[in-house]
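> run fold Arginase
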Amino acid sequence: MAPSNLGLRPLRPGHVPGAWRGPGALEAAGLLTAVGTDAVVRLERPSYNLEANPASRICNGPAIRRFNERLAEALADTLSAGEFPIVIGGDCSILLGCLAAAPGREPVGLVHVDGHSDFYHPGNYDSDSRLGSAAGLDLALATGRGEPLLADWCPSSEHSAQVAA
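> ok
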């Protein structure tokens, strides 16, 4: 369970997105029983920061990277044990940690279902005009497009020519 809301922009000043509640709600509704598992790794919910960070043009950028590094480590351990992980998260920014766990386990496939493309990057929007939210950038970041803090560490960016969305 990866209860993150870090990749989301607040709906209004002072609002903290509640998407982090998604994994708990699905668990309470019986998801673990439905998929037949009792082995669960739960990451601690990260703190959401409403303030811009001078180190990033992406809302919660440094925290997103730290959270995804922890997620990648947990997934790598699960994969090394021969298990098939299912990751339930709160927002799309967790895609980066999921893909970062994949080196040496190729080929890697990704099925991404969302209400929009999640492919904003400096080539198709003005990244200086507003603070970006990783939930609208995640596929671009995963293919190495965008702010280096999040785009350059994910090993999947090496294979961006193999991406279809």
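The domain at 19-150 is CATH 3.40.800.10 (Arginase; Chain A).
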